[in-house]
Each structure stands twice: as structure tokens, then as C-alpha cells.
Amino acid sequence: MMEGAVEIETNEKTPNSGGQVEAVVMPAFDYTSLKAGDLVSTPYGIGKVIDYRGIKEVKFTDGSGCNLHEATAKVYLAKKHTGMRVDHSGILGRIAGGCKVRDDQRWCLGELDKHLEEMAERFYSGDIAAVDEFLQLWCLDDKRPEA
Questions:
Q1: N or C: less crowded end of the chain, CB within 10 Å?
Q2: H/E element holding 132?
Q3: Is 62 in the same domain as 15?
Q4: Structural domain of residue 32, as residue ranges?
Q5: How far is CA 71 from CA 29, 53, 67, 74, 89, in A?
């Protein structure tokens, strides 16, 4: 293990991991460099760093919070999308219901819808590995680096 690195276990509480737990070596996270407004992942979900009279802590959208030293990674989200948006469930439902598709294809569309919802829920709860699992499941991982 490299110096200053911490070994963590991923997928520990992941319902679709098939019981497999991978050990991943990650560099130690330097939470001291965080500033107010940064988004961070914690064991409790994604929160925003606030500075209250010189004391930094993490606050969540529900008003709860935790200590800054519990942050495990800085989270980078895309800028808020303000253009046209497409509701995935509507479009997938219309395709499955209106096109000539086999039953197994219709089932796959339903599963895609469920997996998109699960990925979003888990990602915004702080489980950033959910995106990697989704990409692997749907064969979109050809450029995935070896762990």
C-alpha cells in the first residue's frame, strides 16, 4: 500500500453487488483543503461544506450535518441543466408500450428504467460507485480502467 493511502471496502451495502466486496486503495483524503460551498461525499450522503464563524462542517439538504473530518471525497457535479429535459420513465414506457418489441426486450426496458432510478438515488445519497456499477451492468464500461 502506498504511503498515506487508506484501504477501504466498496460495495459493502450495495444490494446488487452479488455479495462481492472489492478492496480499493485510495489516497488519503485531505479534508483540510476544502472550502465553503464544496460538495463532499460522507458516509451519510453528499453534503455541502459550510463555514460557520471559522468552523467548517458538512450540511445536508434536510438540515442535518456532520463533522468535516467525516468527508471521504470531494464531489464534482455538472452545472445545473437549464435546457430541455426528457423524463426517462415516460420515454421508456412509450417505447415499451407502443413499439413492436419482444417480451424480453420490453422487460429490459423496464429494468433499464429501474436501474436508472436506483443509480440516481444511490449516487445522490453519496454512493458514487453506483454509476460505475450501472455502466458495467449495461456494457458501457469498455473504457473503464482496471482496478
A1: N
A2: helix 129-137
A3: yes
A4: 1-77
A5: 8, 20, 8, 8, 33
Q: Kindly state whether residues 92 and 70 are assigned to the same domain.
A: no
Q: For 80-135, write each residue's pLDDT tens digit.
A: 778 877 777 777 777 767 677 778 877 888 888 899 999 999 888 878 788 888 88
| Residue 67, C-alpha cell as written in the block | 463533522
Distance of alpha carbon 65 from alpha carbon 60, whole angstroms? 6
- Please check whether residues 59 and 104 belong to one and the same domain: no
Same domain, 47 and 111: no
Query: Crossing angle for the helix pair 103-124 and 88-98, nearest 10 degrees?
Result: 170
Contact by Cβ (8 Å): 77, 86 = no
The three-state DSSP-derived secondary structure of 108-130 is HHHHHHHHHHHHHHHHHCCCCHH
As beta bridge partners, residue 58 has: 49, 66
Same domain, 30 and 93: no
pLDDT 10s digits, 45-85: 888 899 888 888 989 888 888 888 888 888 776 777 788 77
